[in-house]
Design goal:
Blueprint (H helix, E strand, L loop, with lengths): L2 H14 L15 H32 L6 H36 L15 H6 L7 H15 L1
Helix pairs in contact: 1-2, 2-3
Length: 149
């Protein structure tokens, strides 16, 4: 795994207060232990994102002021705009996490939506909401670039 991906994986796990899942020799893919690990990871991640949304709402309510100076007012509006864009991305991520948790309930988690093969524990550690294997995702991105170009 490239260093950037590994750091992102460790960052997400550290954020959730978890250690990476250690696969055991001959272990069945997406067994109860793996499902519990990813369910805990996703649930903790979702809770932390929701806390951040609440914190932003309170911050904006507490810090909202009607500055007489147009430059101060513009700076505050720009700060709030940046925060709202970040929260919008997090809101979309929360929806994706909830979709992934639903897939877990339906016993559809960990398998590629496109070809049906195993996504893999390491890929899911890096991107727990992944719904495609790396090969299908790569092909989808290539097709997307071709359509844009």
């Amino acid at each position: 795994m490239p260093a950037g991906k590994e750091n992102k994986t460790l960052g997400l796990l550290a954020l959730a207060g978890l250690t990476p899942y250690e696969e055991k020799e001959g272990e069945e893919y997406m067994n109860d232990a793996q499902m519990d690990h990813f369910r805990q990871l996703l649930s903790t991640w979702r809770a932390q994102l929701r806390e951040e949304v609440d914190r932003t709402v309170h911050h904006m309510q507490d810090e909202a002021a009607n500055f007489p100076d147009p430059v101060d007012r513009a700076a505050q509006e720009e700060e709030f705009s940046i925060e709202l864009r970040a929260r919008d991305r997090e809101r979309k991520l929360i929806k994706k996490i909830e979709k992934t948790l639903k897939r877990m309930e339906d016993d559809d988690f960990g398998y590629c939506d496109s070809c049906g093969i195993e996504i893999g524990v390491r890929r899911l550690e890096a991107r727990p909401t992944a719904d495609m294997c790396i090969d299908c995702k790569t092909l989808a991105e290539i097709k997307e670039k071709q359509l844009q170009g």
